Amino acid sequence: MKVIIVGAGIGGTSAGIALQKLGHEVVVYDQMRENKPVGAALSLWSNGVKVLNWLGLADEVAALGGDMADMVYLDGRTGQTMCDFSLAPVTAQTGQKPYPVARADLQALLMQRVGLDNVHLGMKMTRITDDGAQVTVTFADGSTDTGDVLIGADGARSITRAYVQPDGADEIVREYSGYTNFNGLIPVDAGVGRADAWTTYVADGKRAAVMPVAGDRFYFWFDVPQPAGLPYDRADGVAPLREAFAGWAPGVTSLIDAIDPAASLNRVEIWDITPFATWAKGRVAILGDAAHNTAPDIGQGACSALEDAFALGIAFATNTVSVADTLHRYERVRAERAGELVLRARRRGWETHAFDAAVTDAWYDSLRGADGAGIIRGIVGNIVDSPVNLGGGLRLE
């Protein structure tokens, strides 16, 4: 079959590789003009890495991943250590080491594996037509392509998502999560955190963190609770960070000082979408942020998109009644779990960003002197029901 995928992000390209491995012809379209993903890096927890292993990319992904051996929480104001513990139990219980990776590096790898001749950039989809036998996509330049299946991995503002919803369904809208995220890449700096640790400074409902990625770099991110729609000029650079984190610990000041805004600084308002059940109609289905736009508070956004790719591949490998039947089976495998991760991230964001100060203060108290066991349980809990585990394979402790 010919499969058209709209969206060359992590979910779309990984789905493309999965379907190519089954012998299908895959063509990928994206409206971006070059590989400039939103966000500097991402967390690949064990479930996401396992999907990439399944796709035959284990060695390449390990080379891109940072050596994140430990997790450290520091008081944002004083720099005092709240807790410091090993992440080895995550690997032991799930069977796979997690890796933070630079998003552009992973996306470039996936696009190369799909085949750059099969990836067409600068193509904005405007219309979908499904006649029951084939599906046709129309692009802004007036060109079209026709295939047997369309997978819409077209992101948070997905056109495909609206297409697959039932007639008369309420419009699905994005909801502001209450905070803005600043992120980017800097060289590893011991004054900020250890080179093999995920280090997070917390205070006042704000967070400043670094995670190691390949190339002796830190992926950094800051969370600032604030209203949506505040003006920001890229010429402002790190000025909003200096204001929001004034008086914080020396490590945070060193982090801000290390940022080169011209080289790597993104500002992203965080939004999500309340989970919904309909992911497929006829020969068309959605995947990734189009299906489960989530806040990054539990680090499962990219992993959930990779789970979609895994489930889609298994559905096409094992079901033969019809394309529509296969896509609905994929939908039933994914919608509930992906939606639950969106809600977990929403609850986690409420806890960490002082939308209820008492709740966040209680979380801070729980971190002081913690041995990490509770945090490990939470991380593994997000992984345990992944379809890639095939109903087992975890050693829960």
Automatic annotation (TrEMBL):
Membership in a protein family: Belongs to the FAD-dependent urate hydroxylase family.
SUPFAM superfamilies: FAD/NAD(P)-binding domain
Cofactor dependency: FAD
Entry keywords, A to Z: FAD, Flavoprotein, Monooxygenase, Oxidoreductase, Purine metabolism
Organismal lineage: Bacteria, Bacillati, Actinomycetota, Actinomycetes, Micrococcales
Gene Ontology biological process terms in this record: purine nucleobase metabolic process; urate catabolic process
Pfam family of the protein (one): FAD_binding_3
Name of the protein in question: FAD-dependent urate hydroxylase
Keyword Thylakoid: no
Domain (FAD-binding) ranges: 2-342
Catalytic activity annotation: urate + NADH + O2 + H(+) = 5-hydroxyisourate + NAD(+) + H2O
Domain of life: Bacteria
Single GO MF descriptor: urate oxidase activity
UniProt-listed Enzyme Commission number(s): 1.14.13.113
InterPro entries, sorted: FAD-bd, FAD-dep_Monooxygenase_BioMet, FAD/NAD-bd_sf, HpxO
The protein's enzyme class: oxidoreductase
Organism: Microbacterium dextranolyticum
Functional pathway: Purine metabolism; urate degradation
